[in-house]
């Protein structure tokens, strides 16, 4: 009897040992298998970003908008790209983004003014707004989360410094400005005006539309109007207008007497710089998509970001343009 009992006890001990032993060494897997408390990972929603862009305006704009879209998609965001060349259409796009409850809005304002109402709506809806390249007037920083872009003031200052240094005894010239409704033209003009020396005379200026065709026509007219004034420079506020000016200067046989300065730093402009058609090209770096994606991701993760992020740019002369051209991305 006793023997039988000890066999039973031994068997029970062995069975219990196997059970506990298994659970002990498989503690992690058992615990995992047995506990119903393991939560299924929460599916992370893909952020939907509304991009109120400008669309085909210049090669700079094309490079900028492509870079932004690519970077946001690579950062795992879905982008609704709505290019509009008219202010009213851009406002309508932002309005739709708000109604669609997007995660964030990117905006490059075609026109600086007239944004208070729409941006107040976005703020009320709790949708962060990021201004890309262009800004709003009045610049109410409570109406957007961050603005990102190169500095127009820095660029305008570089242009004026170059003309000051090139003509220490003074000179006469022209300025081809971007559309006065844009923050870009206003900021470049303000920096130029604040930096240019008193002995540099801008005998006239023309409000362009960023295109070379308009700049060609305007420059032809101004060269004729001031043909007796020994014009020595033209400051064109972007590359394309500079190319229109260069064609008019060449047609008038004045390429050796008029120095042209432009802003943007596109491949075509660097080629014209190397060919001697331009005297200086100031970069206004459009490739800030990665930076934009990083700022949007941080804000969507509940983190704070700086209200202004300035993208660095450089100044090109014929020498460093030749070095830069082979690897130029835009
Ligand atoms: O806002 C930036 C300006 O817009 C660029 O200098 C011009 O080329 C673009 O169209």
Helical segment count: 12
Q: Total number of β-strand segments?
A: 12
Decide which structural class fits the backbone.
alpha/beta
CATH-defined superfamily of the largest domain: Response regulator
Outline type: elongated
Determine the strand fraction and express it as a percent band: 15-25%
**Which CATH architecture of the largest domain is right?**
3-Layer(aba) Sandwich
What integer value in Å does the Rg equal? Answer: 31 Å
Residue share in helices?
40-55%
Largest sheet: spatial strand order: 2-1-3-4-5-11
Determine the mean pLDDT.
91
Distance between the termini: 95 Å
The number of domains is: 2
CATH class of the largest domain: Alpha Beta
């Amino acid at each position: 009897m006793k023997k039988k009992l000890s066999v039973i006890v031994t068997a029970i001990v062995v069975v219990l040992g196997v059970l506990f032993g298994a659970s002990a060494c498989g503690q992690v897997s058992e615990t995992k298998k047995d506990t119903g408390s393991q939560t299924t990972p929460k599916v992370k929603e893909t952020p939907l970003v509304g991009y109120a862009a400008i669309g085909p305006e210049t090669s700079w704009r094309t490079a900028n908008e492509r870079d932004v879209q690519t970077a946001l998609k690579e950062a795992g965001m879905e982008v609704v790209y709505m290019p509009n060349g008219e202010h009213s259409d851009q406002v309508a796009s932002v309005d739709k983004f708000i109604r669609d409850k997007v995660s964030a809005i990117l905006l490059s304002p075609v026109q600086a003014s007239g944004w208070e109402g729409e941006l107040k709506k976005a703020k009320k809806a709790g949708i962060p707004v990021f201004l890309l390249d262009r800004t709003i007037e009045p610049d109410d920083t409570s109406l957007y989360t961050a603005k990102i872009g190169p500095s127009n003031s820095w660029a305008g200052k570089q242009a004026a410094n170059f003309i000051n240094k090139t003509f220490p005894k003074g000179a006469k010239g022209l300025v081809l400005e971007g559309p006065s409704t844009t923050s870009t033209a206003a900021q470049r003009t303000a920096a130029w005006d604040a930096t240019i020396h008193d002995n540099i005379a801008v005998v006239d200026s023309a409000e362009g539309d960023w295109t070379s065709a308009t700049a060609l026509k305007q420059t032809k007219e101004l060269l004729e109007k001031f043909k007796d004034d020994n014009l020595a420079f033209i400051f064109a506020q972007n590359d394309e207008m500079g190319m229109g000016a260069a064609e008019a200067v060449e047609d008038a046989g004045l390429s050796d007497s008029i120095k042209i300065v432009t802003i943007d730093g596109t491949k075509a402009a660097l080629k014209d710089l190397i060919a001697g058609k331009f005297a200086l090209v100031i970069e206004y770096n459009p490739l800030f998509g990665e930076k934009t994606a990083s700022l949007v991701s941080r804000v969507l993760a509940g983190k704070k970001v700086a209200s202004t992020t300035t993208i660095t740019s450089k100044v090109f002369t014929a020498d460093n343009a030749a070095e830069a051209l082979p690897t130029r991305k835009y």
